[in-house]
UniProtKB/TrEMBL annotation:
Protein name (database record): MBL fold metallo-hydrolase
InterPro entries noted in UniProt: Mito_Persulfide_Diox, RibonucZ/Hydroxyglut_hydro
A Gene Ontology biological process term: glutathione metabolic process
GO terms, molecular function: sulfur dioxygenase activity
Amino acid sequence: MNSRQGIMIFRQFFDPKTKRLSYLFADPATRIAAVVDPMLATVDSMLETIAGLDLSLQYILVTCIHLDHDHAALALKAVTDGRVVLHERAPGV
């Protein structure tokens, strides 16, 4: 098994101010990544991790509507190829 195969890449990010978690998942073979519920406080750390692991952020998943998630999703979208994904019934969609 080479370094591009194997166990899924997973990182957890914690925002101590809001006490909320965000997650990064990636396929070690394709390097395609997704983040779940990014927070503004963790965007820089997420981007550093994505770059450090040579990942391609393709999906930005928002599971609940909060301004911090929305702004973080847009911040990530602005500097990556990521597509923001949320439920079709989410407010504003």
